[in-house]
Amino acid sequence: MKPAALLAVLLLTLFPMLVRADTDSVNGVWHINGKVEGFAVNVSCALERHGDDLSGVCHDGGVDGPSHVLSSGAVHGDKVTWTYKRRFLVSMFEPRYSGQIDGDSMRGDINVAGHSGVFTADRE
């Protein structure tokens, strides 16, 4: 086989895997553990990428806890951000997660109501 033909076959074979890997880098259920100003954060988020947008739902304390639909989300390479609205006692908050994905792990920052913390996450 000529080198140009071999290269074309390899590209056609590998391209779908490269596209799939990029698309799937965010999709899935993520178990998130962190801390903001001494308060533990334990949520599970089912995230789904749509181009550069991110949608999904997060559950307090695991997949059976109260749910919160993402109000916004974005994906830029291996970096993701998302927010959702959540009631705590009598106040409404909107935590903002900013993370970097590395395979089936993620780590990043949480910002909510002027307070910040860090999180780690593992994909189910």
Helix and strand topology:
Blueprint lengths: L2 H22 L3 E9 L2 E12 L2 E8 L6 E10 L2 E6 L1 E3 L2 E3 L2 E7 L2 E8 L2 E9 L1
Antiparallel strand pairs: 1-2, 1-10, 2-3, 3-4, 4-5, 5-8, 6-7, 8-9, 9-10
How would you briefly describe this protein structure?
The chain has 124 residues and is α+β, with helices and mostly antiparallel strands.
The computed structural class is alpha+beta
Assign the CATH superfamily: Quinohemoprotein amine dehydrogenase alpha subunit, domain 2
Report the helical percentage: 10-25%
Count helical runs. Answer: 1
Given as residue ranges, the uncertain stretches (5+ residues, pLDDT < 50) are 5-23
Determine Rg (CA atoms, Å).
Answer: 18 Å
Strand neighbour order, sheet with most strands: 1-2-3-4-5-8-9-10
The N- and C-terminal alpha carbons lie at a distance of 43 Å
Oligomer: single chain
Please trace the helix and strand order, writing H or E for each element.
HEEEEEEEEEE
Q: Count up the domains.
A: 1
Protein architecture, described:
The protein has 1 helix and 10 strands, in the order αββββββββββ. By secondary structure, it is an alpha+beta fold. It has one domain: Lipocalin (Beta Barrel). A hairpin with a 2-residue loop joins strand 8 (96-102) and strand 9 (105-112). It is globular, with a radius of gyration of 18 Å.
Task: Supply database-style keywords.
two-stranded antiparallel ribbon, eight-stranded antiparallel β-barrel, alpha+beta, globular, 10 strands, 124 residues, Lipocalin
